[in-house]
Amino acid sequence: MREDFDIVAVPDADMPAVEAIAAHYREILRLLGDDPSREGLLKTPMRAAKAMWFATKGSRQDPAEILNQAIFEYAGSKMVVVKDIEFYSLCEHHILPFFGTVSIGYVPGGHMIGLSKLARLVDAVARRLQVQERMTAQICEELQRTLSPRGVIVTCSAQHLCMKMRGVEKQQAVTDTYDYTGVFASDPSLRSEFFNLISR
User: Fold this and answer.
1) Angle, nearest 10°, between helix axes 115-126 and 132-147?
2) C-alpha angle 183-188-194 in degrees, rounded to nearest 5
3) Residue 52 backbone dihedrals phi, psi, to 5 degrees
């Protein structure tokens, strides 16, 4: 692996792609009216390319493979909730960050999942060019498909830099999305219980 002191290492097999991305960043800097050869920008194209490679690593991950690493038998039937899982993503419309938290609840159907895998699932779905609405639905769908619980519910609360630093420039706007399956769709009281739990 090759690495700089301030950059996450990139596997050698990925370096040709990262170097090609850096070349494009160099040209973008020139087209923006700056000088890529000036001292402050000399390493910027490669740093930006490595940062983008890391920020989109979810595009090269399989969420189901992540979840399947830690599925266990479970005889209980009560709700499992992991709340406030932080995430960072990139808006696919402007390639600007959006970030916030995801909360996940599920009612086991004979199996449970290692708690850290829920956080890894969020990262795998978030770290790609995304929109919040689809991201929320994909997390819900992946957990339902892989674990086959009695139901899944996912909420996401996020701030979008494409709304803060450009466009409407609204600094306080927060977007909330949610999706659910199974018993959460058929039982409003179960949804209420979940929302009460995550609001504590």
Assistant:
1) 140
2) 80
3) -65, -40
- DSSP letters, 21-76, are HHHHHHHHHHHTT--TTSGGGTTHHHHHHHHHHHHTGGGG--HHHHHGGGEEE---
CA atoms within 13 A on the CB side of 191: 14
Residues 6+ apart with CB under 8 A from 94: 162, 166
Reported as a single tens digit per residue, the pLDDT across 62-110 is 999 999 999 999 877 799 999 999 999 999 999 999 999 999 999 999 9
Alpha-carbon span 175 to 157, nearest angstrom: 6
* Chain mean pLDDT for the chain: 94
Mapped onto helix, strand or coil, the DSSP state of residue 67 is helix
CA distance 70 to 68: 6
Pairwise CA distance, residues 193 & 184, whole Å = 10
CA gap 41, 57 in Å, rounded: 24
Our CA dihedral for 50, 55, 59, 63, rounded to 10 degrees, sits at: 130
Query: 3-state DSSP helix/strand/coil percent for the chain, to nearest 5?
Result: 50, 25, 30
Query: 10 Å Cβ neighbour count for 87?
Result: 22
What's at 114, amino acid-wise?
Answer: G
> 153 near 194, Cβ under 8 Å?
yes
Residues 58 and 35: their CA atoms lie apart, in Å, by 32
Q: Catalytic positions, please?
A: 91-94, 132, 160, 162
Cα–Cα distance for residue pair 176/133, rounded to 1 Å = 9
